[in-house]
Specification:
7 strands; about 10% strand; about 475 residues; alpha+beta; three-stranded antiparallel sheet
Length: about 475
Amino acid sequence: MTPSQEPKDPMDTLRGVVEGMDLTPEDLLMVLSSVVSLKKRKEDEKKGNKVITEKIYLWENSKDSYIYKDGRTKGGNYYLRIYCRDTKKVFSKSLRTSSQEEGIVLGRQMYQETYGKLQRGEKTKSLTTKELINKYLEIEEKRISPIPKTGITKETWKQKGQYLRMWERYVVEELKMGNTKIENIPPERTREFKFWVLGLEKKEYKDRGWSPDYINSTISEVKRMYGQVGVRDKFISKSLVPELDYMKKPPSTQVKRDILSVDEYERLVTYLRTNKYLKPEGSSPLEQCKRSIFREWIGISYNTGMRPKEILGLKWGDVSINISDTKENQKIFRLLKVKSENSKTGKMRSVNSPVGRRLERLKKSYQDLGMECGPGDYIFRNPTYKKQDKNSPYHQVVFTNRLNKVLEETGIQEELDKTQRNITLYSSRHFYTTLRLQNGLDIHLLSKQLGTSTHYIDQTYSHIQVETNTERITQGMSLIKTLEEE
């Protein structure tokens, strides 16, 4: 072979091809990688699709759903794939069976449960009523805040739970659908809920029955739950929300809570002053202190009209003397500052009331046990030995239990039972409001004292204004009055 016929070096040939093309080694590497990738893809196409194998359509005339096996897995189970043409969404899930016949049956069943959700844009995951309630309460718990108007209180959150457990009980016991997904409960089946509640037996106050307010509050909470979680989070559509009708009731402007009569109140406070109550035989100094504290609680709550929660949140630093009062009134009256975080409305206000001497006696009761009453200490502080140095405020239930006991001891409870009245700690606020209106206090001034609106006072206590203004209402009616007297 002559020198001219000698084979060329492949690298020389490659250099000749790229000569003058301004290519770097990195450029050549990228070209080679693309060639390798393309060659591998062609080989895979020849071998077939290893991901979707044994593909079987659920229905012969439809190509939007089928079961298949995943060639990448070793279990050999079938999977379901659904494609929604309306929303362009794809649903895929393991059927957990390697049997073709069982896979088709399970696939068709799941298709019927899922395709409608895909069409409506809902989540394919379903919830039972109990799961919905738990999810909603978890969200609501995050809204708990000690600052008024910025969230809800822990008590409100607990009340929401009570309302919704009533709904869960209805779904389980009456509808027999405790394990049914919420989208599969026919909305029209729930229309009788209010009547079902009315037929339940109450554990307490059995003679009163279930109030329309309670039933309507329950219905309102159920509707809010379905709206805030069910619909908004796309577990169901609006058309699947339970149909619930509120209880109808005639409008009423009567006081919603029962109150003591003036005579009953006088009997109560008189009894609380006696040694029989304050220092019963065999009682310890601690128990005598607790009884003295309760006596002042009654006096302060009935003379301020404050909400129980507001009183329990008062500290000694919230008490001051009104410098504009006379020296005599400065011995009797005190200004009580209700801070915004302690007020139901979220607004700070001052309450002017004749509780000066009561506060002094209360302070002495604590000091007798060696407890200081500094500006940061609660006025109604638990004096139990283990809590004396912890500045722990009283809980309402403690005073509620003592109230119930003294009502029994004074014989007042017997009269309350005859007239079907239920006296609570909150009754003192209504008692205060009623007496102030009966004595002619201006409604605007009263609303500032109570921390409520004039509209609420007018709607709730308007009958008192009519009852106490006979002369003004009959002014100019002398002729009619004369004829009535003849």
